[in-house]
Please model this.
Amino acid sequence: GRPVLLHGEDGGAWPVAALAFRLGLATRIGAEDVTVLPDGRPARSNAELVAAAVRLRRSSTA
Model:
């Protein structure tokens, strides 16, 4: 089949990323998509967003 990437922006970014991880699909996160962390705090950098996504992935697939 064709690759599927789920992508959300702003308020939808983190819920869509969590759904993608649960379904085993690809997603992306970065400052162009969302500027806050899953807990609502402002992200200080793109690297902080990516680190939060990695933690979310690990908790979603555990």
